[in-house]
Amino acid sequence: MTHFTWTVKPARAAALAGVLVLLPVASPPPGPDESLAAGLRQLYGGSVQPWERWRRRSAVRLPDGREVPREEAYRDDPAFVPAARRLLASRAGDDAPLGAWLLGTLPEARWPEAESALVEALALGDERAAFEAALALAQVGGPESLDALQHAAGEASSAEVRAASGFAAAEIRRRTGVPGPAPRRASTASADTGPVLTPGFRRGVSWWMSEGRADAGEASFRRLASLGVTWVSIHTWDPLQRGLDEPVFAKPERHVGFRDLGALVRSAHAAGLRVMVKPHLEMRGERLQHNRIAMRNEADWRRWFHSYEGYVLPYAREAQAAGADMFCVGREMDSTVVRREADWRALVARIRALFHGPLTYSANFDTWQGIGFWDAFDFIGVSAYFPLSDRPFPSLAELEVGWTRALAPLEQASRRFGRPVLLTEAGFPSIPAAAKAPWREERVRADVWLQARCYEATLRALARRPWNEGAYFWLWERTSPPAFRDPSHAIVGKPASFTMARWYAGGRTVR
Question: What is the pTM of this model?
């Protein structure tokens, strides 16, 4: 065999090296975890409609042809956990909270794979990822997570992360039956701000019935009680008003009433909650506002009140029979109240004959001052969607100034009529304009942390004003997953629910 030796002179070697440097180097193909991370980012990317939570579950077609619900897609892929870890380590956009949330959606057989990554995420400097990691551990964590959760419950820089970690630790103990260390108390409002809500403050939420279709609300009400909630406002959705000047209501086949109000009230009472029943007469046209209802003549006004009486009196009877604790006679129909106060007073008297508990009416935030019939009620009620700040990213102090401005006239009304005030609705969508237009939902990139800051400002303001005796936060309803990308008012799974819980629980551990 003949051996050949190739000798390259130094000058030629240098030139050859220069050529090699200029040649493009092919990037290695992405690994399975990198490819899947990109796919998951795309699958859950983009802004969502506020009403997406009401739609049927989205389906995903997998590469093998299977069609599965989106929340189950790729969960059996061996690369799923490494892909979620890759997202957790990313600082791009909301990759990190997405990675944490994804790990909390794994089937039980894969929980041990997720646990260590989630425990690591608790210590990240990103409060968004730490919050989602705590909620995910509530789903998939075991006793091994308790020490990390206990530490986060006491030491995390974010009050919402502390509260969520305390909740997760309690949930793991409940689920596994394995005793852990004594839970640290959640950060209290008094420790952070001084004032606290009075014991009699109605710690309420507006509760939508989709949360109780399977069990008459039992699980949902127990969960709310663990967050310190003491009252729920259960409302209907009745699109019966056909036009702003139409005196005869539509036939009620489209309305969403109570399937079994008695069962809901019993479940709420069993959980230690009280119930306000609140019928919602709605417009059929999307662009029509029930706050602008006005009839054309006297005959039509009489017909409209006949329609409304036939609508609301059966609800009052049903609420009394069910054992409800309070009744709201109407919501945001202020134009009718201003024009026809005497008719409303007569109607309220008929309702009192049927329902024997406290009554209120929910006036709109921008027209309530024109209403003068509060002496007929036990509470002055307001749908409190007051604009708090026009500035983008308002500070907590700026939001509190907005509440000071909004609440001053209500204090005067409370003194004038000798009635306490209730915020029969109060809430903020999870969007950048939450403080500017709290009543409006939009399809934009969600901002759940601004929503939480608005809740904090609200509760700070109310704790300093004892003439206000309660608030019902809008809204306790499911969110479209993942919750941190849901722009709606709903707070389930969002930081705002734990902001509320810190104030409502009054220092008790959020369970």
Answer: 0.91
